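Figure 3 (text version): structure tokens given as input.
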């Protein structure tokens, strides 16, 4: 998902972007990490010091990485996977359940990207759609476009509930 976001920013938008990731042994359901820096200026240092946005799709990731967010950061979680949010008041979107409803759990990350795009505006929906199309196998384009749209709609519902 981080690579797709970076591509949406740098290839399909007019931003500079740097993406790093670490998966290690905890990648399956644990605290894996993808960092993306997006800027309208050249990026001098490829590491995130304090994140403006955090998306956590597991409790270990939430627990480990909320220490690195700005006080006013946008935090997005899958509330079925991140139960204890402590002092934070994240936006909750059921990425995994929505993917299950589509019959393909693997699209949870694409649903997340749709929600992230709608909630933050960090890249345009058109740029994200183009990045997804460019990144997935041709036979899965329609599924992934539906997943992206599902994430956008879920974000709109979450925003309406927050008001």
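Below: residues designed for each position.
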């Amino acid at each position: 998902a981080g690579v797709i976001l970076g591509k949406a920013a740098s290839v399909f938008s007019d931003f500079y972007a740097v993406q790093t990731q670490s998966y290690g042994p905890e990648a399956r359901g644990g605290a894996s990490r993808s960092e993306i820096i997006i800027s309208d200026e050249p990026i001098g240092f490829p590491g995130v010091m304090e994140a403006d946005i955090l998306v956590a799709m597991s409790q270990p990731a939430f627990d480990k990485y909320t220490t690195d967010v700005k006080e006013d950061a946008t935090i997005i979680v899958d509330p079925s996977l991140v139960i204890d949010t402590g002092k934070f008041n994240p936006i909750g979107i059921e990425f995994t359940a929505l993917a299950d409803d589509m019959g393909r759990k693997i699209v949870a990350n694409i649903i997340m990207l749709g929600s992230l795009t709608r909630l933050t505006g960090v890249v345009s929906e058109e740029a994200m759609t183009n990045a997804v199309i460019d990144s997935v196998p041709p036979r899965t384009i329609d599924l992934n476009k539906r997943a992206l749209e599902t994430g956008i709609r879920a974000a709109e519902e979450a925003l309406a509930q927050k008001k």
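The chain is about 40% helix and 20% strand.
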